[in-house]
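Known limitations

Files may contain more than one protein. Parsers should not assume a single record per file. Below, a two-record file is shown to illustrate correct handling: read the sequence, read the token line, then continue until end of file.
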Amino acid sequence: MKHKNARILIVDESLFMRRMLRKILTEAGYDVAGEASDGASAIQRYREIKPDLVTMDIVLPDVEMNGIETLKWLTKIDPEAKIVMVSAVGYEELINEVLSVGAKDFVVKPFKHDVLIKTIQRVLTNRG
């Protein structure tokens, strides 16, 4: 099954990174259905658009609602949420933590475009 029309929510505090991700994902045929720059907005947008997948940075502007806390909230709202963390902060313990609390995968910045797209395809294809 192809997932090219999958709806994606991009969560990153950097406008530059959101624009870059939008360009990469759109060129790959995905529907970027929304963007958010912080955890509270991410939760609100998730509820509104019900995306097929979320790309999210760990570093978000609100210390109390960083990417890990937002990840926990999103997986409470939707235990089946498909979330790929995309972050420059990528040491092994942190990657293991986000995977243990619900992220489906982790892509370390900077990344090659094809690595991100292949990761998203794999997550969308896998159930659960």
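...continuing to the second record:
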Amino acid sequence: MTTQPLLQPVRLGALELPNRVIMAPMTRARAHNAELVPTDLHATYYAQRAGAGLIVTEGTWVSPDAIGYI
């Protein structure tokens, strides 16, 4: 049985990916603490998805004044 192309390594520019699964960014907006910074919940979320060849993380704002939504 052969390995499916989706699960084979691939080179993407300078990156060597272990597989061709790419997780698109999704805004989770879970930084509800006073500092609006990532928490252990964020680390767990991405750790659970670490099998993807590449994870594009959600965007973050540069200051409280730069939040584009409530």
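Parsers that stop after the first record will miss the second one. For reference, the second record is described as follows. The first strand starts at residue 10 and ends at 12.
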